[in-house]
TrEMBL record:
Entry keywords, A to Z: DNA-binding, Transcription, Transcription regulation
Superkingdom per UniProt: Bacteria
HTH lysR-type domain span: 28-85
Annotated PROSITE patterns: HTH_LYSR
Pfam families: HTH_1, LysR_substrate
Similarity comment: family membership: Belongs to the LysR transcriptional regulatory family.
Gene3D superfamilies per UniProt: Periplasmic binding protein-like II (3.40.190.10), Winged helix-like DNA-binding domain superfamily/Winged helix DNA-binding domain (1.10.10.10)
Annotated region described as Disordered, given as residue ranges: 1-23
Upper classification of the organism: Bacteria, Bacillati, Actinomycetota, Actinomycetes, Kitasatosporales
Protein species of origin: Streptomyces gossypii
Name listed for the protein in its UniProt record: LysR family transcriptional regulator
Length: 319
């Protein structure tokens, strides 16, 4: 991956042998991908530059070099900040997987180098994995510096399957109930918000929409199996919900900001966008969109011990 920095001038030709060097010319380096993820999360190139420890001109130059290398526009820049293009949202999702894989690679190499034999396998839903779990893992590392943690992220159905198949020791999900075949404990609660761009008619109405109007409006949502979909279906009952599916929270936010329609998202996921007025939260009459956040583990398993027990304790939200 590190070789990509030397080939940032233009997209590589599709012709030629498919070898490691050819791939390196098409894949940006990790630093550039981390910068793109920061811009997507913070909505500002300047804030992303500060977080990544580089100057804003250097960050801007790096993003433009990445756009030339890939041959597509990633960001739309304006005085109010930077937002992802449609293609940029997809690239960001793919970039996140690359960065997460690199982190797993790094943790594995450290484990081999240090001859560590303690391992904790965690599966988490996307919202918890992106917005809460990193802080818990940092605190866990202070208590168990020799524990190597592997993380798999997906929707709540994915987490349940990882636990049932024995591929994870502890999971975190959002939803109305404990998934079948698992035991669990509520660690906190999360509020779901209906969000729209500032120019949307709902953002200017005196009387908010009700459940029937919400159900009749095409919504942008995560895929089936996500905790958000489960809670929304429970809140609206028999009312049908037309929707457009997107594969990630980042893609949903980019679509809403771009004017594709309202969405229902976790309050944890839209804090930056609400503060910057890129999104507006709209109340809905008669609809309670609140869900439990749960730690889950295989049914009948002995009480968690060691690092699993400590991570469970660190995850209990104090609010």
């Amino acid at each position: 991956m590190s070789g990509a920095g030397a080939h940032g001038g233009s997209p590589a030709s599709p012709a030629g042998p498919e070898n490691g060097l050819g791939l390196s010319r098409r894949v940006p380096d990790l630093g550039a991908l981390q910068l793109l993820l920061a811009v997507a999360r913070l909505g500002s190139l300047g804030r992303a530059a500060r977080e990544c420890g580089v100057s804003q001109p250097a960050a801007s130059s790096r993003v433009r070099a990445m756009e030339r290398q890939l041959g597509i526009a990633l960001l739309e820049r304006s005085p109010r900040g930077s937002r992802l293009t449609g293609a940029g949202a997809l690239v960001t999702d793919w970039a996140r997987r690359i960065v997460e894989s690199a982190e797993v690679f790094d943790a594995g190499v450290q484990a081999l180098r240090g001859r560590r034999d303690s391992r904790l396998r965690v599966a988490a839903s996307m919202t918890i994995g992106e917005y809460l779990l990193p802080g818990w893992l940092i605190a866990l590392r202070a208590r168990h510096p020799d524990t190597v943690v592997s993380l798999a992220a997906g929707n709540s159905a994915f987490v349940a399957e990882r636990l049932r198949s024995g591929e994870a020791d502890l999971g975190f999900v959002e939803g109305l109930t404990v998934p079948q075949g698992l035991d669990g404990a509520v660690i906190g609660h999360d509020r779901l918000l209906v969000v729209v761009p500032p120019a949307h008619p709902w953002a200017r109405r005196r009387r908010p929409p009700d459940a029937r109007e919400l159900a009749a409006t095409p919504l942008i949502l995560r895929e089936e199996g996500s905790g958000t979909r489960e809670v929304l279906a429970g809140a609206l009952g028999e009312l049908a919900v037309p929707l457009h599916e997107f594969p990630s929270t980042t893609a949903v936010k980019a679509a809403v900001i771009g004017g594709a329609g309202p969405a229902v998202l976790s309050e944890l996921a839209v804090g930056e966008e609400l503060a910057a007025r890129r999104l507006v939260a709209v109340p809905v009459e008669g609809v309670a969109l609140r869900r439990a956040l749960r730690a889950v583990w295989p049914k009948g398993q002995r009480p968690p011990a060691g690092p699993v027990r400590d991570l469970l304790g660190l995850s209990r939200l104090r609010r």
